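User: Here's a chain of 436 residues. Predict its fold as tokens.
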Amino acid sequence: MRDDASFRLHLSRRKFIRMSVAGTTLGLLPGACLFPLTQPAGKQPVEGAKGRSVIVIQLTGGNDILNTVIPYQDPAYFRARPTLNSVAKKARPISDNLAFHPALDPLRELFQDGQLAILQGVGYPQSSRDHQQAIRDWYTALPGDTVERTGWIGRACDILNQALPSEVHALFVGTIPLPQALVGRSAVVPRIRDANNVNWEPLPAGDWEISSGEPPDEGTAPLTAEAQDLLRHLRQTATQAQRVAKRVQAAVEKVAPQLDAARFELERRLQLIASLIDAEVGVRFFFTDFGGPEPGGFDTHANQLDNHHALLTELAQGIASFAHHTEKLGIADRVLLMTFSEFGRTLAENGRHGTDHGAATSLFVFGKAVQGGLVGKHPSLYQLDQGGLIHHTDFRAVYKSLLEDWLGVPAEPVLGPVPGPVPLFVKEEYRAGRAS
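Assistant: Prediction complete.
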């Protein structure tokens, strides 16, 4: 984007646009350059497959997939993990060679019913083993890029926003700063921190000031026509968010009492998300994080056995509860849930009874529309990438399938010319068809 065509947003009483939902923020990045997407001539704006949603769970820290889905018959696994292999004794087989960690037992029924797919060997070439860069790679879907400010979900929402500008297309449920995956150029993404206390604070229009470049010490530069268009967009965004907020608040108040009965925080978040889908608030993407930012999380360099067991227990309970809740609400055929982690871990355990940063991993994908079971070959334990598993499926091909097969959103404007789509998990009768 050219400097002379960009505008920075400045607020007279706030550092960036913020709407509160009792600790919930709806924000555009501080200083983010914003510009409207334009639809190519001759093409109609994309509305996507109505009523469908994607729920993304980020397993923060790098999940050890080899002790999640265990190659319990492979001698190489036992040789490389003299203490960590103890979980294999109680593992529950799901195939001739693989078994669930004992903590994942609540997911076995979903797997056996064909509603849970395990996408094996997922990663990307020359994957980063640095947490910050690796998670950025998954967020932006532009591996190695250090400049891009938008994310793959945010860009998808920009496309949806052209056809449905009065809707909020994505929602973050969590306490960390808004993940870059959700940052778009025109679409706005709210955040809910606390599901038990939702109040929407309106943003006075007088708080907005727009200038080209950095703000001077006093006053602002006169508004150009382009800046005025941007200001109108921001005002429309505030109105749009407040309209959606009323529906969100009503849905949250309705479900709040039963959220208190949930055993884990992830379970509460997923039940809340299910209730918002049932309330038809129009959101297509829901995103939540799990395992961070507390020290440790899925970054299990030491004492992995107990820590990993606790994490997988909460993950399994959350997904199983979500499955039950969506079935009860009658929305099970409208949801698709996916987990991801920034990288896998090394095959060999280290001297602290943990594992170190690896490469390829596996993703869990749940839904009634999912073609369940094991998808793709399990990576070899004998040919490794610096001690980690070697990928065979690019994670961007998974994103492409999510967008095109499930949501009916064209993937190339979001992801660029990437591999796929791979018919990884969506049953033929549920496919939205390739949007153009």
